[in-house]
Amino acid sequence: MRLRRVVADGQGVGMRFPDDVPELTSGDLTLRAHRLEDADAVVEQCVDAVSLQWTTVPAGYTRAMAVDWVTTSVPQSWESGSERVFALETTHPDGRRRFSGSLSLRDEGSRRAELAFGAHPAVRGRGVMTRAVNLLLDYGFSDWRLETVIWRANVGNFASRRVAWKTGFTFGGMIPRWLPQRGEYLDGWEATLHRTDARVPTTSWLDVPVLEGRSVRLRPLTDADIPRIVEASADPRSQHWLPFLPHPYTEADARGFLLRSGTRAAEGAGADWAVAASSSDTLLGTLGLPRGGRNGWEIGYLAHPDARGRGAIREAVGLVTAHVFRDAASGGLGARRAYLRASEGNAASRHVAMANGFREYGRERSSETLRDGSVCDMVLYDLLASDPMQAPSR
User: Fold this and answer.
1) Partners of 185 in the beta sheet?
2) Which residue of 127, 173, 251, 268 lies most exposed, with the fewest beta carbons within 10 A?
3) Parallel, antiparallel, or unpaired for β 296-298 and 292-293?
């Protein structure tokens, strides 16, 4: 890293823009003062759907707004001492080196600051912002002599949360109705980083890799799956055997499921996949690991009505079971055991377990109250990594 040091000037004290703005570099990344020629790329970022969803950027963002922000708002932030705002410059996938986002430390007083960042759509998903945030934190803790930095984001902004997680922030939970966005007050996440912290993840993040089968493809769930999730979960057969499903099941319930799923993965506590047709990517069901660890993971699954009897869930369970047993070096979870529970009368669900080599090892007697009020046993199945697995058939 190359850093042109400036005289330490204490929080709340202004700096001349752009003369006193340091240039921070690390490899292909440069953090620098904003320039007028950044305005067009600023517009590209601010009209992007992801920026509109998760940031406070005004709707209908124009070039005039970008020019005003670059030439007036940013300089005033530096000169008033309220915020140190950097432009991120790096090479885009098209080979051009240009503006790639903005990130800042907002003065909170008492040697504290809030971290904020937003990436240009062309560089998202490449680890650029994680490296840039680490560069900014180096500056904040050394030259600005910060003690603690806080990060906040709207609940559901997993891309921002992943950057904070990768850079070692400690998560403190949810703050209800706190973050303002276009007239609303939204629930937020928050996390903090102290100058003495190790700057590496302190918890696990359970990734949801794509798992390819013969006729199904397991992939992360997306908002596009919501209508099919509603259809599958509202189906009378699903409602009967899975009484924990809300009734009636709505789009809001499906969105809540996606949020809980993403949060479990971020906390290393579980994972969920869309079971999609290999040929069309149509959702055929969902499959999850709701709880577990190295000693074993529970598997749960739900089929869309038009996917029943086609072997899709049977194949999907085989793929996930293999993922559970596969060692971590090969991208798996490295667990010793997989297990599941099925209602005694749910022949289809029990068949999926047995077709994949799972063995019945016990029952929870009269432990499940079904949707119609009847009570049944839950049959318990498990499979050890050392047991033979039944390869899913076509």
Assistant:
1) 180
2) 173
3) antiparallel
Instruction: Output the DSSP codes for 369-385.
Output: E-TTS-EEEEEEEEEET
- C-alpha separations of 263 from 159, 162, 233, 392 in Å: 12, 11, 20, 30
Strands 359-369 and 375-384: antiparallel
226-234 and 251-266 are packed helices; what angle lies between their axes, rounded to 10 degrees?
110
pTM (2 d.p.): 0.91
Strands (E), 182-257: 184-194, 211-212, 216-219
Spatial separation of the C-alpha atoms in residues 244 and 361, rounded to whole Å:
24
Spatial neighbors of 337 by CB under 8 A, at least 6 apart, are: 295, 296, 297, 382, 383, 384, 385
**In terms of C-beta density within 10 A (0-12 exposed, 13-18 middle, 19 or more buried), how is residue 342 classed?**
buried
Q: In what order do the strands lie in the sheet with 292-293?
A: 292-293, 296-298, 337-343, 375-384, 359-369
Give residues with Cβ within 8 angstroms of 291, minimum separation 6: 269, 270, 297, 298
- Distance (Å, whole) CA 361 – CA 99: 59
What is the full per-residue pLDDT of the chain (394 aa) written as tens digits? 333 333 344 566 789 999 999 999 999 999 999 999 999 999 999 999 999 999 999 999 999 999 999 999 999 999 999 999 999 999 999 999 999 999 999 999 999 999 999 999 999 999 999 999 999 999 999 999 999 999 999 999 999 999 999 999 999 989 999 999 999 999 999 999 999 999 999 899 999 999 999 999 999 999 999 999 999 999 999 999 999 999 999 999 999 999 999 999 999 999 999 999 999 999 999 999 999 998 999 999 999 999 999 999 999 999 999 999 999 999 999 999 999 999 999 999 999 999 999 999 999 999 999 999 999 999 999 999 999 876 544 3
Length of the chain: 394
Euclidean distance between CA atoms 33 and 64, whole angstroms: 19
Determine contact, residues 80/14, Cβ cutoff 8 Å: yes
